[in-house]
Specification:
Blueprint (H helix, E strand, L loop, with lengths): L1 E7 L4 E7 L4 E9 L8 E6 L2 E6 L5 H12 L13 E8 L10 E2 L2 H9 L8 H14 L4 E6 L9 H4 L5 H7 L8 H15 L7 E7 L3 E7 L2 E5 L21 H10 L3 H10 L2 H6 L5 H9 L3 H24 L5 E5 H6 L1 H8 L11 H5 L7 E2 L8 E4 L4 H14 L2
Parallel strand pairs: 1-6, 6-8, 9-12, 12-14
Antiparallel strand pairs: 1-2, 2-3, 3-4, 4-5, 7-8, 9-10, 10-11, 13-14
Length: 401
């Protein structure tokens, strides 16, 4: 069974073709700059080769056609016919409260996705374009929607509710939704597999630390809290997002600078976080480089970044009455041993016996243990694989039809 995974952005399509008999990646790639015609391109990776081809692409349907023709191409391709693809799994950012698992796309699901656009206006229209392109280019092919919020629908009400007028929730569904759910679900399952323990017996803190970053508390296999909120702005310090902030700052800055609310929120999303504090760098590698060279603002960004992660680990250990295992994942979590060491410093009170040497000499791209055997809490790097998670969920949905 081969499954095509699609992650459609506003001008891009990321794809992976996976053989789910053996969970093997057959091909992956990225279509970029859709709509920019002379700059549109596809980068395709298969059989150890990477090929970039420029081609004018007007819309997502043309982008998808390009992907599909490449997958069956006599030279670059990995399959003979599109009939070999059993289904397409789509990453959909928001499933609101309705979708607590992946579903087969039908007219109702499409209508719901349209209704949820207001909840994630930057992502949902693009996600929808991906589904519509598949329906147009491969009519009759099964499409499965895998929602980034689904894993978090198990949060108890006291975790997901904000303490605001109740009618804001009743009338407008204002609440914490959480994101990166597909990743946290994958990380928690992988961690329980590595530990050889049933996920139902574990208290896990999953740290997905990339440019966008969130932490999730997973108790007995279920998300009980997560750092992102109504939007991905809440929680940790991120590349360009502020994370937690007193909302009164929005009005104050609007009054002081003449920016309207939208502009202030855009600044919190795009000009804050590591970029805001350092004034120059949203990329964690730059923050490390310049803080090591003594740049004061980069040093502050580095400290604040680590501090907030530590705070949430402590908070989630409290929320779960303990923690058995902690996982670091995503671009920074998987790659920056310095960040992990700084976060894990002075955590003995939790029962963590961190192995600094193992952490420093870690192997990239594999599940890797960072705690000593004597540690009460197991600490691991678990490389995330959202596409695999989407493909597994798509396979599961097909199996239940
Ligand atoms: P997103 O998917 O949210 O865009 P990623 O998970 O790709 O983010 O992570 C991007 C971040 O990972 C960047 O801040 C980048 O600096 C960091 N990163 C990537 N490789 C390394 C590395 N080798 N060392 C430290 N940080 C790294």
């Amino acid at each position: 069974m081969k499954i095509l995974v699609i992650n459609a952005g506003s001008s891009s399509i990321k794809y992976q073709l996976l053989d789910m008999e053996n969970e093997k990646l057959l091909a992956k790639g990225l279509v970029e700059r859709i709509g920019e015609l002379e700059y549109s391109s596809l980068t395709h990776k298969a059989n150890g080769n990477s090929t970039t081809i420029m081609r004018p692409l007007q819309d997502h349907a043309q982008g998808l056609e390009f992907v599909l023709s490449t997958l069956v191409d006599s030279e670059l391709g990995v399959i003979k016919s599109l009939d070999e693809i059993s289904a397409v799994g789509h990453r959909i950012v928001h499933g609101s409260e309705k979708y607590n698992s992946a579903v087969l796309v039908n007219d109702e699901v499409i209508k719901d996705i349209k209704d949820f656009i207001a909840l994630a206006p930057l992502h949902m229209p693009a996600n929808l374009l991906g589904i519509e392109a598949c329906k147009k280019v491969m009519p009759g092919k099964k499409n499965v929607a895998v929602f980034d919020t689904a894993f978090h629908t198990t949060m108890p009400d006291y975790a997901y509710m904000y303490a605001v007028p109740h009618s804001w929730y009743e009338d407008f569904r204002v609440r914490k939704y959480g994101f990166h759910g597909t990743s946290h679900e994958y990380i928690a399952n992988e961690l329980s597999r590595v530990l050889g323990k049933d996920i139902k017996d574990l208290k896990i803190i999953s740290c997905h630390i990339g440019n966008g970053a969130s932490i999730c508390a997973v108790k007995n296999g279920q998300c009980i809290d997560t750092t992102m909120g109504f939007t991905p702005l809440e929680g940790l310090v991120m590349g360009t997002r502020s994370g937690d902030i007193d909302p009164a700052v929005v009005e104050y800055m609007s009054n002081k600078t003449g920016m309207d609310i939208h502009e202030v929120i855009t600044a919190l999303n795009k000009k804050s976080g590591l970029l805001g504090l350092s004034e120059h760098y949203s990329d964690h590698r730059d923050i490390m480089k310049y803080s090591n060279e003594g740049d004061k603002k980069s040093m502050l960004a580095r400290k604040k970044f680590v501090y907030v992660i530590k705070k949430y680990i402590g908070a989630y250990a409290a929320a779960m009455n303990g923690v058995d295992a902690i996982a670091f994942s995503a671009g920074i979590g998987e790659n920056s041993y310095e960040m992990r060491e700084e976060v894990m410093q002075d955590m003995e009170y939790l029962g963590i016996n961190f192995d600094k040497e193992a952490n420093k000499n870690f192997e990239r791209g594999v599940n890797y243990k960072l705690s000593k055997d004597t540690s009460k809490v197991s600490v691991y790097v678990i490389p995330t694989d959202e596409e695999m998670s989407i493909a597994r969920q798509t396979k599961y949905v097909l199996g239940n039809l």
